Amino acid sequence: MCTVSGCQRPRSEQCSVKWARPRLHDHDALIGMVDPALRGLYPPKSLPPFADIVSLCVQADPAHRAPISEVVQALILPILMYKVLAFSLEILETSLSYCNN
Predict the structure, then answer these.
(1) pLDDT per residue as tens digits for the range 31-54
(2) What are the contacts of 71-76 at 24+ separation with CB within 8 A?
(3) Which of helix, strand or coil describes residue 34?
(4) Angle, vertex CA 25, rays to CA 89 and CA 88, nearest 5
(5) Domain locations in the chain?
(6) Record keywords: Nucleotide-binding included (predicted)?
(7) C-alpha separations of 15 from 7, 10, 66 in Å
């Protein structure tokens, strides 16, 4: 069931899939969809690949939705890229602090 009890959103926004689907490829709307607790913990340019993966899961026709194995496989590359980037930045920061001492 999509409707959230006690939800203060207009009825047209109470189904999260219907609400999110048109926003997945609008960069500004996509940024607004991210949990505020996560803001600043990721580069905003990293969102579109995840939006593409989410869109595999929210197709209107269930027959066109990707199997979970395909979704998991699609998540591996962006997550690995993020981890490599974070590790590279950590090494760079360590190197810079070593050079400054």
Answers:
(1) 888 888 887 787 888 888 889 999
(2) 75/50
(3) coil
(4) 10
(5) 11-100
(6) yes
(7) 10, 10, 20
